[in-house]
Amino acid sequence: MFIEVEQKTLAKALHMISGAAAARSPIPILAGLKLEADPGGLTLAAGHPGMMLQYRIPSGDGQAIVGQRGSIVVPARYLTELIRRLPEGFVTVSCTEDRVVVIRSGGAAYRLSGMCADAFPALARLEHSAVVHMPNFALKRAIKQVAFAVSTSDARPSLTGVSCRSEGGQVRLTATDGVRLASRTIAASKRRQDAFPAVVIPGKPLSEFSKMMHDEQGTTAVTLGKDSIRFQTGDLLMQCSLLAGGFPSADQLTPAAFAAELTLETQALLRTLVRVSLLSGDSKTVRLTVLSESAIELSSRTAAVGDAAETVGIEALSGEKLAVSFNGSHMTDIIEAVDSACVTLKLAGKWSPIVIRPADCPSSFYILTPIRTRG
Amino acid sequence: MFIEVEQKTLAKALHMISGAAAARSPIPILAGLKLEADPGGLTLAAGHPGMMLQYRIPSGDGQAIVGQRGSIVVPARYLTELIRRLPEGFVTVSCTEDRVVVIRSGGAAYRLSGMCADAFPALARLEHSAVVHMPNFALKRAIKQVAFAVSTSDARPSLTGVSCRSEGGQVRLTATDGVRLASRTIAASKRRQDAFPAVVIPGKPLSEFSKMMHDEQGTTAVTLGKDSIRFQTGDLLMQCSLLAGGFPSADQLTPAAFAAELTLETQALLRTLVRVSLLSGDSKTVRLTVLSESAIELSSRTAAVGDAAETVGIEALSGEKLAVSFNGSHMTDIIEAVDSACVTLKLAGKWSPIVIRPADCPSSFYILTPIRTRG
Lengths: 375, 375
Fold this sequence. Notes:
Family (chains A, B): Belongs to the beta sliding clamp family.
CATH architecture of the largest domain in chain A: Roll
Shape of chain A: elongated
Low-confidence stretches of chain A: none
Keywords (chains A, B): Cytoplasm, DNA replication, DNA-binding, DNA-directed DNA polymerase, Nucleotidyltransferase, Transferase
Strand order of the largest sheet of chain A: 14-11-12-13-26-25-24-18-22
Oligomer: homodimer
InterPro entries (chains A, B): DNA_clamp_sf, DNA_polIII_beta, DNA_polIII_beta_C, DNA_polIII_beta_cen, DNA_polIII_beta_N
Number of helices of chain A: 7
Largest interface: A-B, 32 and 32 residues
CATH superfamily of the largest domain in chain A: DNA Polymerase III, subunit A, domain 2
Subcellular location (chains A, B): Cytoplasm
Main location (chains A, B): cytoplasm
């Protein structure tokens, strides 16, 4: 293997994908990063059999010149830290017969012990696949607005994922940890008339991938195989195994009827919620009380420290004057995700889930189970 | 107690000094922050008997209005987090008879349990004191350039401090952990003809204080008492106990004669040192070899991972072609502190300390003990 590549280009590629390499692994090759040079360019890959990230630097546009094809696995951390700190200009990467990777730039020569690329997990072929195309801007936003609600516990593995299913010309993403639920649709263009059944995508790689979608004008092709899913946009590719197990439906959590509906300014609610949550203690309990047609009160209390009470103006109210308690930290996450000037809260009583919707956008909704209090 | 104070002003004051309050303490009052209102303004204090930070918001310029004098201790973390998040405008802070502190702003009312201010450590009076005045800009820079070299081990407590002594019209600051030493003088104007003997100031509070010196045009008054020292600039005051115990002199570490002296571009040396250190392993050993009249090589090796070698151009060389090994991380700290376009390294042999000086500034110097290697 012999390649010449722009330091900036290589540093950017490594910055993107090296996080997928294990920091420490009983299987040393999984802490590695695979470099594969062919006449068309350089492909970098990192990950494990359940999740693989791949980035390609094409040789066409002068960023990389492949002198000799070949492949090798290099310790990800050392390579990334080194390339990031090299001066600008072309870097040469070559590989000796005994798998020593030599990196040169100006007066610098670095030699890293490589590992055989054959032992590195390969990207599985996707059989019986269906493809859906989604605009990056909408996909990135939707993942951010939904994926925060995944469960962090391994008790029910499917809840650590984001459910994805087709609904007409749209794709609906849903995440829940059993206490809160976030759901949003995105317009998607199917280029092939394949079926796209409901699947559950691991939440963490999905969030990581969404942060790497730098080209917001582009499109992501989502390819669904039998037990894996692939996201591909520009030179970046992420493929991961789907999660097995059932996924709760939002309908099960949504109350049949509501007793009150109130609309508030999102930023005013968010700022007050964050402040009142400061004194919500270990249980994070924040109480919302509808005071009048024009104001609610948020309150909290931490034993031995103190208590908080703030009023927030209401834009519109219909129905009864209720009070309900909830996890202030969960509600903050939801209000932060709402992404709309006003937000509507639908209450069905102090023991029934609260439904939260952006006031001007029907494509997303959130559900939060209340905390049962004595008061 | 009743005061009205601008949210921005109070938030800035709390941000500065609340770090001095203990995060968790077996003595609850040390996790508190003392508020003391008198007709002249509001004084905030945090710390412990060995180190106290104090900030005063004067009532004169409209930032604070004291309605009723009084003092109380409030949990530092809660107060700081709350005030930071309140909207701009005036905040009122009052105190009930049963020591509940009430904070109001717009529609918000927060109540925090206070503690009796009499139990809070008082600022000790400085007896037999001497005063020296130093320009903030020079003092801030000098502390940054020296304090990194303090010891982090409690084995010899005096080495966790910065030695400070008068030398003619100057003050010399020195720090060392036994392996490396950093020293620098600052011009100081003594307004009183007091003696200012050598003392050792705890390194951590000194560094923290230097970061709070926002007014670089101002002056700091340093008042030395029998066993405490006070730094005061503008509205900010820091007082801490001096460290007892001997402090090594730079003369003991400095070789009597040098075999070689080389001058290099500081930034080129620094960047190369950081890269080569990536492969210096757990021992952090980096080797410097004078290759010729015009170049040195820095090299390192990590077992089972790889090795590094880079050349750096020399601006000027006199003496022998030597090789010496040192802790790359310590040398990086020193070269970062040098703050000059070129740096001079004076070598006396592979077992003798290296002396490092900014090429154009006689006021500072650094000493680094080499690592003894077999090669």
